[in-house]
Design goal:
By secondary structure, the protein is of the alpha+beta class. The chain is built from 14 helices and 19 strands.
């Protein structure tokens, strides 16, 4: 079966997509993928095809690649978008470039559209080996998935079943031209070292090593799916309502997690945290144990790459973005029916206010008290503690004051008959969306 025929089989699940976009670097792999798709479109009913080239500006040779991609796409009658991105000069240059590239893809992919990237079977084997030497677990050793969500659409790797040699043969057969990235010969980069030094030696001893390693990655992916199913089962009870669902923050019941074995705790947390942050390595999981086993009156924190877990009220909470920054002390005058944005803290909506008095919205002050019906003057700190309001929420909870005295606390139904009418002020908190990866 020809490469195009096999590729057409791989494309079957996405033929109803509104559009196909090809990540075109100008190299061998993406050039072959784009050419094969255009050839298929001449005799098959396929979604409209376009290409996108990301220019990272990391080396002088790359300045000629956009023009090469323009000429290639013009010859194939394919629309091309060229995007220039800035790569942060911190940490791993490969990682920063990849993040910038995929961010550009995400921003440009429409609902249910498909972004095709041209990694092949040899890339998959190298990825597995690279992650193996870094001590990755099951999810890491699953290497690159064929499909995953990307923005409003999907990222798809249709060439994972093809070897680099097969792509080279196709390119030679059709007289294709492509650019060579000079950095691919730099063995300072780990992947290049594996590709040029390690994989050829393995292939001498085991000629089918790439195929075997890709098969192992598929086995790991299947094992990962089973672990995810187990995690979802374990989280069913742990994700029960916290009683303050209006916060809109991810949280889990700590006692339910404690009822699981150590391994199942870690598996459940990996699954739960995956959309929010990069996973910690094995050593840093000690942070989870410290948070879980801290004294009952402690307020422990486990800091992760994109946010942190906090324990309070018998639950663990994921916080990121503006939730990690203190709110600035301020007092805002308000009137009936007003909606007010709070810097770094969502917004409040004020109901119908009695005409008498000067009304303001602000935050709790040290030692502040409120007049509680039938109970006299009560310290607000102690009152919020009795109502099990999470510690990290208390200094952000908007208060409505009349002539300087607290008359309502936002979103706390237990206080409706205690300090004013709850309907006087409603708080729409910020979310942790800033932490989604």
């Amino acid at each position: 079966m020809t490469l195009r025929a096999r590729l057409l089989e791989q494309l079957a699940p996405w033929r109803a997509a509104p559009a196909w976009r090809v990540a075109l670097s100008g190299g061998l792999d993406s050039t072959v993928l784009l050419h094969a798709l255009v050839q298929l479109a001449q005799r098959e009913s396929l979604p409209p095809i376009s290409a996108i080239h990301i220019h990272h500006g990391l080396q002088a040779a790359a300045d000629a690649w956009p023009e090469h991609c323009r000429a290639l796409c013009a010859g194939l009658h394919v629309p091309l978008e060229i995007v220039y991105v800035q790569v942060e000069d911190t940490g791993s240059l490969e990682q920063r470039a990849r993040e910038a590239r995929y961010q550009a893809f995400t921003e440009r992919l429409g609902a249910d559209e498909v972004m095709f990237v041209a990694q092949h079977r040899d890339d998959q084997a190298e990825t597995l080996l690279f992650r193996l030497v870094r001590g990755a677990g099951v999810q890491g050793l699953a290497a690159m998935p064929v499909i995953r969500p990307l923005g409003a659409g999907h990222l798809v790797r249709p060439l994972l079943g093809f070897s680099r040699a097969e792509l080279q043969e196709y390119a030679d057969e059709h007289g294709l031209h492509w650019v060579e990235d000079p950095s691919n010969s730099d063995e300072h980069f780990s992947r290049n070292y594996l590709r040029q030094q390690v994989m050829p030696q393995l292939a001498k001893r085991w000629p089918q090593v790439s195929m075997a390693m890709a098969r192992s990655a598929a086995h790991q992916a299947e094992a990962g799916e089973l672990l995810d199913e187990l995690a979802a089962i374990d989280l069913l009870d742990a994700a029960d309502s916290s009683g303050i669902g209006w916060l809109g923050l991810p949280s889990l019941n700590l006692e339910v997690l404690r009822g699981l074995s150590e391994a199942r705790q870690r598996n459940a947390l990996r699954f739960w945290l995956r959309p929010f942050t990069r996973m910690p390595d094995s050593v840093h999981w000690a942070g989870w144990v410290a948070l879980r086993d801290a004294d009952a009156d402690a307020v422990p924190v486990w800091r992760l790459h994109s946010g942190e877990l906090r324990r309070t009220g018998g639950r663990v909470w994921w916080l990121s973005g503006c939730w990690l920054q203190p709110v600035a002390e301020h007092e805002w005058p308000v009137r009936s029916g007003q909606a007010l944005c709070l810097p770094g803290n969502g917004r409040v909506e004020v109901g119908v206010l009695p005409s008498v008095g000067h009304y303001t919205v602000g935050y709790r002050r040290p030692g502040e008290v409120a007049e509680v019906s039938g109970r006299g003057r009560r310290d607000l700190k102690r009152l919020l503690n009795e109502l099990c309001i999470p510690v990290f929420v208390r200094d952000r909870l908007p208060l409505l004051r009349r002539d300087g005295a607290v008359v309502a606390i936002a979103n706390v139904p237990q206080l409706r008959s205690i300090v004013g009418d709850r309907g006087l002020i409603n708080w729409i908190p910020p979310t942790s969306d800033q932490g989604l990866s």
